[in-house]
UniProtKB/TrEMBL annotation, chain A:
The lineage of its organism: Bacteria, Pseudomonadati, Pseudomonadota, Alphaproteobacteria, Rhodospirillales. InterPro entries: Brnchd-chn_aa_trnsp_AzlD. The chain crosses the membrane at residues 12-33, 45-64, 76-101. It comes from Stella humosa. Keywords: Membrane, Transmembrane, Transmembrane helix. It comes from the Bacteria. This is Putative membrane protein. Pfam families: AzlD.
UniProtKB/TrEMBL annotation, chain B:
One of its GO terms (cellular component) is plasma membrane. This is 4-azaleucine resistance transporter AzlC. It is a multi-pass membrane protein. It comes from Stella humosa. Coiled coil: none annotated. InterPro entries: Brnchd-chn_aa_trnsp_permease. Keywords: Cell membrane, Membrane, Transmembrane, Transmembrane helix, Transport.
């Protein structure tokens, strides 16, 4: 049974506000902490390597968990990106190949 | 790097460009918002509670985790702790924006960071790496994605179980394909191969061993630290 549409349980609202605070603390916290760390050559090199490493770490388990359609779809998206140079086209190609491969494999 | 000393602007045009660039992500978030709305209803959240969560938290994975442990009475502490852990990866993303966002006013920077997600953070970062000075990409793309996320949550909750499986259309793959495209653009040459390989292997290994999002933090730290050590210890690596 779904509850009344507009009901707001005090505990539920407390949990949601807590979640919002926790999430914002993470979003702003990394930026804030960097204020207190001196910008050295090593620090700059580290910051420069974060973006690629974060995205690879998000992507790799998703692909590994998915199976062949996801592996091939990732290769297709990257290859189309490389050739066409347009991310929307690459994303569409990736989605289309995964949808197709899921029917076939 | 003198690049970091250049001023960063914050304009309406930049926000609009951000919203336009976020279009594929917003379409994908509609599919997941619908699914989240349906799942939240099944977990016992009211329409108002589910919509409020999407509006204030705006972090899909942690919201799914939260409704996974939701109950009556609501386990507030467990829900908040799980959210903190699942979203800890955002610490690294925020840190990576420091060189540019420190040139904005505090209000612009800390306001923008509310809207930072896995998918619009790369949009803002790429703009800076391309040499653009526009810092409003995050807020523009974020506002757009937030509105579609909340609207689709509410719609999914209201429509109940009538929604089909977005997997059939491959829509769940949107984010993976987007990450693949971003990586092609971030690739600076063979010097990236070693840190990325270390990140990938670490992330997959930790993902298999530990639930949650620890694999992102472990993989990102391992890869980025390895790259930084390589760059600073010898002559090899990128021309910085």
């Amino acid at each position: 049974m779904a509850p009344e549409a507009w009901s707001l349980d005090p505990l539920a609202v407390t949990a949601i506000l807590g979640m919002a605070a926790a999430t914002y603390a993470m979003r702003a916290g990394g930026f804030w902490i960097m204020r207190w760390l001196p910008m050295s050559r090593g620090m700059e090199a580290w910051l420069r390597h974060i973006p690629g490493a974060v995205i690879v770490s998000l992507l790799a388990p998703m692909v590994a968990r998915g199976g062949w359609p996801e592996v091939i779809g990732t290769v297709v998206a990257a290859a189309v990106m490389r050739v066409a140079g347009h991310d929307l086209v690459a994303i569409m190609a990736g989605i289309a190949s995964v949808a197709l491969l899921r029917q076939v494999l | 790097m003198s690049e970091h000393l250049r001023p960063v602007v914050f304009t309406r045009a930049g926000a609009l460009k951000g919203a336009r660039d976020a279009l594929p992500m917003a379409l994908s978030s509609i599919a997941f918002g619908l699914v989240f709305g349906v799942a939240a209803r099944q977990a016992g959240l009211s329409l108002a509670e589910a919509s409020l969560m999407s509006a204030l938290v705006f972090a899909g994975s942690s919201q799914f985790v939260a409704i996974g442990i939701w109950g009556s009475p609501v386990p507030v502490f467990a829900v908040v702790l799980a959210t903190l852990i699942v979203n800890a990866r955002h610490l690294l993303m925020g840190a990576s924006l420091r060189p540019w966002y420190s040139r904005l006013t505090r209000r612009q920077a800390y306001g923008s960071l509310f809207f930072m997600t896995d998918t619009n953070w790369p949009l803002q970062l790429q703009a800076f790496l391309r040499g653009e000075r526009e810092g409003a990409v995050l807020v523009g793309s974020g506002l757009f994605m937030l509105s579609t996320w909340v609207a689709s949550t509410a719609f999914g909750h209201a429509a109940g179980a009538a929604i089909g499986d977005p997997r059939t259309w491959g829509l769940d793959f949107t984010v993976v394909a987007f990450f693949a495209a971003v990586l092609v653009k971030l690739w600076r040459g063979r010097g990236d191969a070693m840190p990325w390989l270390i990140a990938a292997v670490t992330a997959v290994a930790v993902h298999l061993a530990v639930p949650g999002f620890w694999h992102v933090i472990a993989g990102a730290l391992a890869g980025s630290i390895a790259g930084a050590i390589r760059d600073t210890s010898g002559k090899a690596g990128h021309g910085a």
